[in-house]
Amino acid sequence: xxxxxxxxxxxxxxxxLAAAGGIAYAAGTFHAVSPHSFDPAHTFxxxxxxxxxxxxxTDAKTSSDGAHLDGHARDAGCPTGDPRxxxxxxxxxNKSGPSANYAAAQAELKDVGGIQLKDLGYDxxxxxxxxxDPRGSHCGAGAPRFDIVYSDGTDVTTGCNSVNDAQVxxxxxxxxxxxxxxxxxxxxxxxxxxxILSDEGTDAGPDHFGLSVLDNIDVNGVIVGHGxxxxxx
Length: 233
Known about the structure:
The protein is mainly beta. The protein has one domain: Jelly Rolls. It is built from 1 helix and 14 strands. The strands form 3 sheets. Strands 2, 5, 7, 10, 11, 13 and 14 form a 7-stranded antiparallel sheet that branches. The longest helix is centred in the first third of the chain and has 11 residues, at about 5-15. The protein is globular.
């Protein structure tokens, strides 16, 4: 898929999402991740959305008898999380079928316009700390990836298994935390939009899974790990 073209069309097709609970956020205050499917031919082979119970448990409660909350679930892959996420939501990005299908699962990071990007990342549901491991979520060089659109029109992408601009910082039983180095030469550039795109399907190895679960999207130290709505397509 022509990644740059998808990103440009995504700018036009993702509708704004109202702030949760009517809270007013200042411009440049990252506070939400809005999922949306890009599927202009209506193939119905892509989906994206926040789903309860599939996120990384930072300090979730468990029950040994079905009647009392008497334990905790934690994964070292997410040492910090979103305190506004009581339902342990995760962001599912799915593409079934071939990568060549002109469609993508995607999400827009809201109200990042005007910032200078210093820190960017997410947690991904994948065991072992090896991004090339076929187990768990798809984590390819091109997907899921951040697509950063700068105010000067520059469009920069960085993928889950990018060699030089990403590192795993924390590893747990079922999750890992990835942080991306801001693109070289853009350290002081102003951001216009940021998207997460996933357009590699079940023909993409080594996992041939075409599906990723993300959580705790991080922009400059602000973490968002929940959504108010699912897929808006």
